[in-house]
Amino acid sequence: MTDADYTMAELMVAAAAREIRDGEVVFVGMRLPLLAFLLAKSTHAPRALSIYENGIIRATPSRDPVFTVSDPTNNLGAIQTGSALDALGILQRGRVDLGFIGGAEVDRYGNLNTSYIGGWKRPAVRLPGSGGGCDIASLAGRLLIIMAHERRRFKARVDYVTSPGYGDGGDWRRRMGLPRGGPAAVITTLGVLRFDPEGGEMYLDACHPGVTPEQVQAATAWPLRVSPQVGVTLPPTEPELRIIRQYDPQGFWTR
Amino acid sequence: MPSYLELRRRMEERDRGLREKVVSLSEACRLIRDGDHVAVGGCHYSRTPSAMIWEIIRQQKRNLTFSRSITSTEGDLLLVAGATRHIITSWFSPAVTYGVSKVMRHYTQSGEARFEEWSHLSMGLRYRAGAMGVPFIPIRTMMGSDVIRQLPEVKELECPYTGEKLVLLPALNPDVALIHVQRADPYGNGQWDGLPFMDADIALAATRVIITTERLVSNEQIRRAPDQTRIPFFCVDAVVEVPYGCVPHECYGLYEPDFDHLDEYVKVMMGQGVEGVQGYLREYVEGPASWEEFLAKVGVQHLLKISAAGRRMSYD
Questions:
Q1: Is the pLDDT of residue A1 over 60?
Q2: Mean pLDDT of chain B
Q3: If B191 and its partner were Cys, which of A42, A148, B83, B228 is the partner (CB 3.0–4.6 Å)?
């Protein structure tokens, strides 16, 4: 196996894992976020803690792969299996440093839509909805977004704000009654994007290997700001790939 | 929204004395009246009171409002059966791995049914307020979202203590709660293993509570571990013993979801939409004469497989 032999999902998992700092309390979702947490935990963040919105608190990986948060295997060996309100209350109390979330659409201020494509009055697609997404986006210390980078998904303004980012920019969150938090990064299939700390607007921070800023712009439906020091995402290392494949042996999420 | 005195009156008119209340699935279902708000315990495909929902469909209940923290395949079945046109929940689809429910999309995109969306935390706090007997509860999420703009019952408030901007959620007091547990005694003292979800709050918030249980146990056994009693008997109106009562969903420590059955269901539901689910209902809900016959139809091989997987979790 050479370093070049990795999938896009594995690259995204590695990039997401690097956003997790050691000792952090992380609100973990399914799919790639779970793998990113396990990778961070196995490498640079051994003291990180995972909380799942159904009430599970884990300091160690589950024995078997987990497909949805309440799977029995996610209960075994947990520190606590509490109620949904236990976990979401911990989030509201402000004890969660980092939350993960995905979405069908995101906009230039990091607002996410998982409810209605095409507006709520006459939706083209009714999506499954918020779940804990709106709560995580409102309350986590930092928010990490993972999603496919396509022009129809990266809109100037999302059709519907399920989970608030920086609203329409500036001090919007504070005015709305969301004094902390907000998106820190978006890990996509093309690169890593971050947010201007003043205005809250998304900018391109790094392209994945082989991707140009022009390609990222072409897949983004607003004039995308690009960092003057735009970099290249570090590919997953061989040890990182080994760990990802240990937790996703069938490649269910990453192939 | 019913007043506090009205909610108290509804509970006071129930017989709360110590009495055995073991009944059949169909007798318990008669406690549900057309038009009721029915709250469903468990979450997603975990500890779902599937047998009770199956019976609701068979008895052709109408105009029910359903609420649940996260809604899975049971929501499809209730919509297609015509039992409900109004579901209050935070997330609705079979599972992350199965994509967006075509049935949910059919009914909601046409406007035929309402999928009233709240955040997961707000569902939990609404039940909690209902359980605590207060009319509302403040929350720090949903501000600035479009979710809140479709919920006229949510009010904004400047906190009288801190001056912060908060929103207030109205309490949710269901008419009936459906809760599935691993064990209960004939009086209705219920104990569960594994994740509690929102079940205790749902039961305490509701006016009537129907418990289905994997095993009926003695009151002595309940009292040997009173720390595990989650629902006390005087809140409960009916107890039904229904082994494998969550199938095709899971019941912690006993059986995992029947993914083979769910795969088949999702194939039919996503492939043929409402008509596919109508066929599923004919075959699996209307056809079998009893829940035991439904289980036989699902197949003993399936039950053995999910039991082995469910028990392996705690045996090795």
A1: no
A2: 96
A3: B228
